[in-house]
Structures are given as structure tokens and as C-alpha cells.
Amino acid sequence: PPRRTFGIPSAHDRIAFKVDIAPADLETDRAPRGLFVDTWRDAAGANIIAYAGSPVRGEARARCRARLRGMTIEKTVRIAGAAARDSALEVGYAIAAARALEGTLEVQLDLAMPSAGGPGGRMRIDGAIAGGFATELRRTSVGAVALEDDVLGGTLLIELAPACAMDAKPLVTVSRSESGFEKIMQAVTLTFSWPLTIAAGGREELRVNLRCATARS
After folding, report:
1. Whole-model pTM?
2. What is the pLDDT of residues 68-113, one digit of tens each?
């Protein structure tokens, strides 16, 4: 005979979907996430760069190095500015080629902005509004990105030297609540790409600066 139930059913006993969710949305995200996740891509494939290094004694700076096929990448991370309001995170890359090489350095930033995909978030590219934080886009030449967040009460400024290509997309996870399964935006993922052609014995330098400018009342 059928099993009888009594009382108020739990909201978690029902299956409901607030948005369309595909099987791919439920797959485990195995990609590394964080700030300044670096990848080198060339004809041989893609390699997430693993650095070795240490802080510089007496300075707000760290220096690290990685060796890949025919090249050395030196990465320097520095906190600049005496006051918290004026401080910036400066990250520099120096790529030295032992032989002629051609490839692309990618620098990925996963930034959890309080406004997420809501109306309080705006992305400016070189001064022009490009959309909200959930906007997917690609630009071929970007020198500066500003993430303006009304909930944060400020703006995250990203400066790139030299200008480079940029991909932006939301980082979304699937969550289950009493209303059903839904997608939650966790961060905006910005990937900056510099195609490089370096002669044997040559050297290229790149820089990414981050600064948070709070709104002044």
C-alpha cells in the first residue's frame, strides 16, 4: 500500500528549479581560483605557472620565479603607498627568453564583489561603462578596468601596462534553497592576455596594478 505522510512537508523534499540548470552546471570546478593565477600558453599547450620565492626582508614586497620551457618568469608583488587609502597592489612580470619563443601570458583575477550580478555593480573599460559584473565580454585592447560597487561604497581600479586583451565572465555556482535550485554569482573573473614574441636573450616586462578607491562622503 502507498506510504502515508502527515504534517507539513519540508521545502527541501521537493525538487524545483528557479532557473534552467544543465548537467554541465553541476560539474566540479577544478580550475584554480584566486588573485593572479598565471598561465603560459604556447604551441605545446597550457601550463599554470608554479612559482618559488619569498618575501623581501624589511619591505612590503615578495619576489618569486618560475622556469618553463626555454624561459624564466620573475614575478614581483609589492604593496605601494604609505596610507591605507592610497595603497595599491603592484604585480610585475619579467619574462626572459633563453631561446626564441612565442606564446601568451594569461593573468586571471577572481574578484568577489559585494553587488555580484545586481544593479549596484558597473564595469568600466578605459572610462566607458561596458555592463554589470555578470556581463560576459571580450576586448582586444584594455588599459584600465574599474569595478564600481555601490554596496562596497567604492571602486576597484585595475591598470594594465602594456594594454592587453581581456575576457570577463561571472563565476557562478549552483545552490539549493527553499525556493529550489538556483545559480549564485560568486565572483567576476577577469583574464588578461599578452601575446608575446621574444627573441633569444630578449626580455619583456608587464605590470598589473590594483587599487581600491572608497567613495568619499
Report:
1. 0.84
2. 988 999 999 999 876 656 679 999 999 999 999 999 999 999 999 9
Handedness of CA 118, 119, 124, 128 (dihedral sign): positive
Show me where the domains of the chain are located.
15-214
25 φ/ψ angles, rounded to the nearest 5 degrees = -70, -20
Residues in contact with 58: Cβ distance below 8 Å, sequence separation at least 6, in sequence order: none
CATH code assigned to 15-214: 2.70.98.10
CA–CA separation, 186 vs 174, rounded Å?
A: 10
- Other C-beta atoms closer than 10 Å to the C-beta of 66 total 17
- 21 in Cβ contact with 173 (< 8 Å): no
Condensed to tens digits (0 to 9), the pLDDT of residues 179-198 reads 677 778 899 999 999 999 99
Q: Torsion-angle region of residue 109: left (phi > 0), alpha (psi -120 to 50) or beta?
A: beta
Closest listed residue to residue 42, CA positions, set 194, 208, 201, 199: 194
Cα–Cα distance for residue pair 22/176, rounded to 1 Å = 14
